[in-house]
Design brief:
The protein is of the alpha+beta class and 282 residues long. The chain folds into 2 domains: 117 residues, no CATH class; 152 residues, Alpha-Beta Plaits, CATH 3.30.70. The chain is 62% helix and 10% strand. A 5-stranded mixed beta sheet has the order 2-3-1-4-5, with helices on both faces. Helix 3 packs parallel to helix 5. The chain is elongated.
């Protein structure tokens, strides 16, 4: 996402509409001041495109009507109201504006869909590694610049291969979807769940220390109790020893494998997730 897109993405539709209105009013004043012989109708496409691209089709259509009305008012004032030419011109401009809004809205919808597909795991609906990497970079920068804890959970399903071998891949897909739903349902909207491998997930928890991350994963485990799905986790809290996203993921991965080895050495009953797994904290 480029800086311009990021700027407008952070604004509400009403704020964007207000910005478009100010721009349209400025164009309307210039159009009126220059008289009937110099048309600025083409420039109205700027506020119309702004409202459509960043606020939606409904706002774009509203701006189309407003801009056509402003153009009509300027033409009537310049013409003196002695003919119907301004009305015809306004109707023509409105038709063009509406077509532009519809085309831009369709392009915007297609772009958003493509962007979601590029950033989302198609099987589970959670983020893929690309999306996770982007968010992790921002979260690590924010944590180091402004303070506040940041934790990462690396999660791997226990005996997942056996599920695929015995019950089939369709059953394995159902297990993955169940885990993704349990993680997403037990976390905050600001947390990010991502599937980064066959049966491996990571959870990024901004403004959360190790203990908070453990509690969050425990809630997900409780949702999966009746499904007999178990998993091993490694939890790490960002500290100065972690220099990059690869370091953060790698250390959490190592901790997860330590937990998995501990599970395998047990008597067949996995210890409660979030209590006995190895963890690292700052």
């Amino acid at each position: 996402m480029n800086p311009l897109d990021r700027f407008f993405a952070r604004r509400s539709p009403m704020v964007i509409l207000a910005m478009a209105l100010v721009l349209a009013a400025a164009i309307g004043w210039i159009d009126f001041a220059t008289g009937v012989y110099l048309s600025f109708a083409l420039f109205y496409l700027v506020p119309i495109g702004l409202a459509t691209a960043y606020a939606g089709r409904a706002y774009g259509l509203s701006m189309a009507v407003i801009c056509a009305t402003l153009g009509l008012a300027g033409d009537v004032a310049s013409d003196g109201g002695h003919s119907l030419y301004p009305v015809w011109n306004a109707a023509t401009r409105l038709g063009v504006f509406v077509v532009v809004v519809v085309v831009l809205a369709q392009l915007r919808s297609a772009h958003q869909k493509e962007r979601r597909l590029a950033r989302t795991d198609p099987l589970t609906g959670v983020a893929n590694f690309r999306w996770f990497e982007e968010e992790a970079q921002r979260a690590m920068y924010s944590s180091r610049r402004y303070g506040g804890p940041l934790s990462l959970v690396y999660l791997d399903l226990d005996d997942f291969k056996q599920v695929n071998d015995v019950r089939g891949h369709a059953a394995g897909d159902d297990v993955l979807r169940s885990v993704a739903a349990a993680l997403s349902g037990s976390l905050r909207p600001t947390d990010l769940v991502a599937r980064i491998g066959g049966d491996e997930f990571v959870v990024l928890l901004p403004h959360t220390d190790r203990e908070g991350a453990q509690r969050a994963i425990e809630r997900a485990r409780e949702q999966l109790t009746e499904t007999e799905i178990s998993f091993s986790v490694g939890i790490i809290q960002l500290d100065r020893a972690v220099g990059s996203i690869d370091d953060l993921v790698g250390k959490a991965d190592e901790l997860m494998y330590e937990a998995k080895r501990a599970h395998r050495q047990a008597t067949g009953v996995a210890p409660p997730v979030g209590r006995n797994e190895p963890v690292v904290s700052a």
